[in-house]
TrEMBL record, chain A:
GO terms for cellular component: plasma membrane. This is Hydrogenase-4 component E. The keyword Signal does not apply. Its main location: membrane. InterPro entries: HyfE-like. It is found in: Cell membrane. Coiled coil: none annotated. It comes from the Bacteria. Keywords: Cell membrane, Membrane, Transmembrane, Transmembrane helix. It comes from Velamenicoccus archaeovorus.
UniProtKB/TrEMBL annotation, chain C:
GO terms for cellular component: plasma membrane. Its main location: membrane. One of its GO terms (molecular function) is lyase activity. The keyword Nucleus does not apply. The chain crosses the membrane at residues 6-24, 70-91, 97-119, 131-152, 164-183, 227-243, 249-271, 283-303. Keywords: Lyase, Membrane, Transmembrane, Transmembrane helix. This is Formate hydrogenlyase subunit 4. It holds the Pfam family NADHdh. The keyword Transmembrane helix applies. It is a multi-pass membrane protein. It is found in: Membrane.
Length: 211, 487, 305
């Protein structure tokens, strides 16, 4: 079951790279978070720990409902061009992502050499998600995609935490989830300001400061 | 109770700043940060080497290392607070800021202080991560405070680059957690517990985890090549905030790295972290030296100098002997004091000449005598002249390096430091001396600013000439903690 | 002994295949809050075509006339190589999963020729598009199956499927196959079965010149092909209880089979509702993704997971 969910996350992560428009990317992020929630829920059911259920619920609330809605709201409000401004076309991005996954797989095979397939898969998928998040931040040069990329990276780490280590201690998870939410809000506010000051949100055109 | 009050006082000050009128607000903040410094002093004095103070059910924990960082943070906080009052007042009079924004500044300043003070006090590595991330988020608004194109751009880069770095640090934290869970079956992120069991952790996972930690928190600490946000943020932030960023924010991230390095050293021996520290340290100093040579912007110059000094501190951690670690802590303190002094002077100069460009700032001695004196003292200290503190700490670090037989790195470090020396002297002496341009009047330094300059300069000399015994005891205890051995 | 049973199984499958298409359509309509056509509508269509007169273009050659039989025949043969209820020809040592792909290619080859043969512009366009897509689909599908085969060190369908279990590489290969299935059954986002819009249609464009019983044969073949893909996907994702080791009666096996097909149909219907039709030149992104997943599965299986 976990394997199935992990594969789902993998597909969604790759699908993010073929997105051409901002709403599609946000929707994809929402779905990915939903799968993350399901992984945590699956774990909670098997562990029968009340704390994990709470954490799963919090993930659902913050990552599936609040943050994507906030981002959508923001996109509507600033009314920018919806295209993502790809620096690398989808097929090349996919090939790059494949190499990232390959690297992650080789790396994880070295790191956790004698562990069951689920642990290996969790490692590979999480590292891939982190790397692809980073990739999105670098090769999709809009302020909003950088926020989404950051959130995707964080999703990857949450995935790692909940699928291999069985979730971090209760209060840590709660505090981190809160922190992610605050981070999304604050970066959102800055994006709003960028749009106000520069009248666009294309990060590669922010080049006033150099040296 | 002591630890709890250190955390709660800045929070209370933030609340008060939101409620009180301007005059009372200034007094309240001053009182709060004065009390904080006193409390930090008491904590540093009371802490016994070897054991820690625990509060709040184990959530808060302080040992000699955290006590030192608390002292550092609260000292620079107080200086920045005193300096920022006349600084902001000038902006308000000049129409650059509104009264409402000044209130916002006070609130954010206190929130920022609270998050920074929280970092060394949290025992749980996950909580510590959150606190470091919160320092970014709280200070982002202070960097983008003027809401101009440049400052918004700087704030954006700051938030995004640091958040990515911090996210990698979280990955490292999760890996440490995994290693602990895999080894002992205990699910914990409490540093004190992990430290007790560090000996048996899987070295492979720990090495990867530490790499992520070093790159992650290293981004925030300003290590090259992850330093790209730093000059932008430092140059665009309000000057007192620049001093805070450079003086203490970078050090809170270093604190986090040190905590993880202690675990990693115990799990896999000191060679691994040592090599990484020396590499990143030297690389940072080299990169900073190159950029310093070609720098034209006053505050960016100082920002690159911060990268250089962080590099020296990390290098010293890499050398790893008790003397070197002692020197590295001492250097952190010296650098914080010096850099605040120079940043404050730079802030005055930039305001007077209304430009950041070094070639347009000339003759500070004639226009702003106190500022010029402060800049000169700071400059001499920065490049490592006696009788200031940095001379002492650099001396300690280098002699530790030679003692350990690391001749190659030591020579390289000296070489890079010579480049930095030349660059800083060349750029700043022209600004301090030289002829003042026409149309710029002399004077305009508030009394409290002069007070800050004088006391920081005196502190620098004091640190260089004779270190106070309690401070020495604290540093000895802290470095003993880090190296895990005697001194 | 086995051969008559096999024929019986194939016959039932062909007869039931249009039902699957009808079911997917019901799922989609239910999600769209529409009344929609009845479950048996595909049967009604086929029956209607059977009654109609057939018209053949004057320029058409024998290829045009023979194609429906070739396509239907190759699809029926392919049906015998996949484990449907409980067993297949490959168990009798007569071929493996790769022969499945050859049979599909044969049908596709003739269909594309027939599209060109009739001499209408749409047919040629459909053929060219079909081959364009096939050039992406086939490597992905073959590679995905090869990964699964490598895992079971046999390319015969049943041991292949039985040894799959739940491995990570198999999961990724299944993800790739799922995308292939969407393309092969002419579904959104690659093609759209529900419209005959000139600019977008692919499969329908090749059939445009056909009428009467020939059209009925081609449609039946398309339904059967869809069933084959669904059952292959179902078998790889959830192999149980194919094969004799489970000790279940044939009826129970059939029941499980139906359950799997229903699940597959629902997922496909959901996917179709959730996605939009892609422009032809963006289909490469989609199928490129499928191919990449196959490669990825290969990499992961190479690491032993």
């Amino acid at each position: 079951m976990t394997l199935f969910l992990l594969t789902g996350i993998m597909i969604l992560t790759y699908a993010m790279l073929v997105c051409h428009r901002i709403p599609a990317l946000i929707q994809n992020f929402r779905l990915q978070s939903l799968f993350l929630f399901l992984v945590t829920l699956d774990f909670a059911v098997r562990q029968k720990e009340a704390g994990v259920f709470v954490v799963a619920g919090l993930l659902l609330l913050v990552k599936v409902i609040l943050i994507p809605s906030f981002l959508n709201h923001l996109v509507k409000k600033i009314r920018v061009d919806e295209r993502l401004g790809l620096f690398l076309n989808p097929l090349l991005s996919l090939i790059a992502a494949l190499f990232l996954t390959w690297g992650a797989a080789v790396f994880c095979a070295w790191l956790v050499s004698d562990s069951p397939a689920v642990v290996f898969a969790a490692f590979v998928v999480s590292i891939t998600v982190v790397l692809v998040g980073f990739f999105i931040m670098v090769f999709r040069m809009k302020a909003l995609t950088q926020i989404v990329g950051l959130l995707v990276m964080e999703n990857g780490i949450f995935l790692l935490a909940s699928s291999i280590a069985g979730g971090m201690p209760f209060f840590v998870e709660i505090v981190i989830a809160f922190d992610v939410f605050v981070c999304a809000i604050i970066t959102g506010i800055f994006m709003y300001r960028i749009n106000k000051v520069f009248t666009h949100i294309e990060v590669h055109r922010l080049t006033d400061l150099k040296g | 109770m002591l630890l709890f009050s250190i955390v709660i006082i800045p929070v209370l000050a933030a609340v008060l700043s939101a409620l009180l009128p301007a005059r009372l607000r200034g007094m309240a903040n001053l009182a709060a940060h004065g009390v904080l410094l006193a409390l930090a002093g008491i904590l540093a004095y009371r802490i016994s080497p070897g054991s820690g103070i625990v509060a709040f059910g184990g959530v808060l924990r302080a040992d000699a290392l955290s006590a030192f960082f608390i002292l550092l943070i609260s000292l620079i906080n107080l200086a920045a607070l005193v300096y920022s009052r006349p600084y902001l007042q000038e902006d308000i009079d000049g129409g650059a800021l509104s009264v409402r924004q000044a209130r916002g500044y006070d609130i954010l300043f206190n929130v920022f202080a609270a998050t920074m003070l929280l970092v060394p006090l949290l025992d749980n590595l996950g909580h510590m991560w959150v606190a470091v991330e919160l320092t970014t988020l709280a200070s982002a608004f202070l960097v983008g405070f003027y809401n101009t194109k440049a400052s918004v751009e700087a704030a954006w880069k700051y938030v995004i680059i640091c958040s990515v770095g911090i996210t990698l640090a979280l990955l490292g934290t999760v890996l440490v957690y995994y290693a602990v869970a895999a080894q002992a079956g205990t699910k914990t992120l409490d540093w004190s517990v992990i430290m007790g069991r560090a000996a048996g952790l899987n070295p492979r996972i720990m090495s990867v985890a530490f790499l992520f930690i070093l790159v992650g928190y290293g981004t925030k600490a300003g290590l090259a090549p992850m330093h790209t946000w730093l000059p932008d943020a430092h140059s665009q932030a309000l000057t007192p905030v620049s001093a805070l960023l450079s003086g203490v924010l970078l050090k809170t991230s270093l604190y986090a790295i040190i905590r993880f390095a202690m675990i990693t050293n115990k799990a896999m021996g000191p060679e691994f972290t040592s090599r990484l520290f020396i590499f990143f340290g030297l690389f940072s100093v080299a990169v900073a030296g190159i950029f310093l040579l070609a720098q034209k912007d006053f505050k960016r110059l100082l920002a690159y100098s911060s990268i250089e000094h962080v590099g020296i501190i990390v290098f010293a951690l890499g050398v790893g002997t008790p003397l070197a670690v002692f020197g590295s802590m001492f250097h952190a303190l010296n650098h914080a004091v010096t850099k605040s002094l120079v940043f404050f002077a730079a802030g005055n100069a930039v305001k007077k000449y209304k430009t950041h460009h070094l070639h347009m700032i000339h003759g500070l001695v004639q226009t702003l005598p106190f500022t010029a004196a402060a800049a000169l003292v700071g400059l001499l200290s920065l490049v490592g002249m006696p009788p200031f503190g940095i001379f002492m700490s650099k001396l300690m670090i280098l002699s530790a390096c030679f003692q350990k037989g690391l001749y190659g790195p030591a020579v390289l470090l000296l070489l890079f430091l010579a480049v930095v020396f030349g660059a800083l002297m060349f750029h700043l002496s022209a600004s301090i001396f030289g002829h003042k341009p026409k149309g710029i009047e002399s004077g305009g330094e508030a009394l409290s600013m002069k007070l800050v300059f004088v006391s920081l300069a005196l502190l620098l000399v004091l640190l260089g000439v004779m270190m106070p015994t309690p401070l020495q005891a604290l540093l000895v205890a802290a470095s003993r903690l880090v190296t895990g051995g005697g001194l | 002994m086995k051969i008559p049973l096999l024929l019986l199984q194939a016959g039932i499958a062909v007869l039931a295949a249009p039902l699957v298409s009808g079911f997917v359509r019901r799922v989609k309509n239910a999600l769209r809050m529409r009344q929609g056509a009845a479950l048996v509508q595909p049967y009604r269509n086929i029956a209607k075509y059977m009654r109609k007169e057939e018209v053949v273009s004057e320029t058409a050659s024998w290829i045009f006339r023979w194609t429906p039989s070739v396509v239907l025949g190759s699809t029926l043969a392919a049906l015998m190589f996949v484990p449907v209820f409980s067993f297949s020809l490959s168990a009798a040592g007569m071929g493996d999963v790769l022969s499945l792909f050859f049979l599909f290619s044969l049908g596709r080859f003739f269909l594309a020729l027939a599209g060109l043969d009739a001499g209408s512009a749409f047919g040629g366009m459909g053929s060219s598009r079909e081959m364009f897509i096939a050039s992406f689909v086939e490597p992905a599908a073959v590679l995905a199956v090869a990964v699964v085969a490598a895992h079971s060190s046999s390319s015969a369908a049943e041991p292949l499927v039985r040894s799959m279990g739940m491995s990570f590489s198999g999961m990724i290969a299944a993800a790739s196959l799922f995308m292939v299935v969407l393309a092969e059954t002419s579904r959104i986002p690659v093609d759209n079965q529900e419209t005959h819009l000139e600019l977008t249609m692919i499969h329908e464009a090749m059939l445009l010149e056909y009428s009467g019983p020939s059209l009925a044969m081609l449609e039946t073949a398309a339904h059967a092909k869809q069933l084959i893909w669904f059952s292959l996907l179902g078998a790889i994702l959830w192999p149980w209880p194919i094969g004799s080791s489970s000790g279940l009666s044939a009826v129970a096996c059939a029941a499980f089979f139906v359950l799997k097909i229903i699940l597959c149909a629902i997922v496909v219907g959901l996917t179709e509702i959730g996605l939009a039709k892609m422009r032809l030149f963006r289909v490469t992104d989609f199928l490129g993704l499928a191919f990449l997943f196959s490669v990825l599965a290969l990499v992961v299986s190479g690491l032993g997971y």
